[in-house]
Structure prediction request, 225 residues.
Amino acid sequence: MATRTFEKEIYIDQKAAENMVKAMKAAKKRPKEEHIDVKASIERSVSLLPKTLRR
Amino acid sequence: MREVLSLFFCTKNSDVETFLRDKAITFEKASRARTYLILDEEALTDGKIAIIAYFTVSMKSLNLREGISKNVRKHLDGLGNKQGSTFVVYLIGQLGKNDTYSSEIDGKELIARAIATIKEAYEVVGGRYILVECEPVPGLKKLYEDNGFTFLQESLENDSLIQFIRFIDP
Prediction:
């Protein structure tokens, strides 16, 4: 993890692009993931926050 | 809020710590990224805020070099376009656990939450890939590979980082 990742230019060459295609194929073999209800989780946390920290 | 964020410690990676303490709010206000805090629910019910972990997500543009074959470009695009020179992906820009509560969450759950959050955006606007960049540490490589990421490349800048990519499946 690096803050500069947000800023820097990232270039992709043939080999990396092929790796992206590999990632696509790997996704098809991946087992179905457990669903996480992000909205419900956020709403619950916000409801417990002190009012001054809610937005 | 800054006081709360100042209680986040990550000795393994000072950038993860510094980002949350000093930059996350600026990035949030500028809408350059969104930071999600994972809070301890027991502490919250007691009126305290304990940040167990956090992650920051954003968008990133990948620049495709000229030498990439048309066949590969076609696959990447998803609609058969062979001419594109940029490709937009979601980015997990930061992700880290608080040293104080590191046993409360594991890396797998943290990544799962980051992916689930990106999938909310994916449902609304689409998108095809998630990018993450990390230090070339064996434990981190394994963590991302075990969670559906594929090695993309070593960073082309001299920063010793490596990049992983994950195709978003519905």
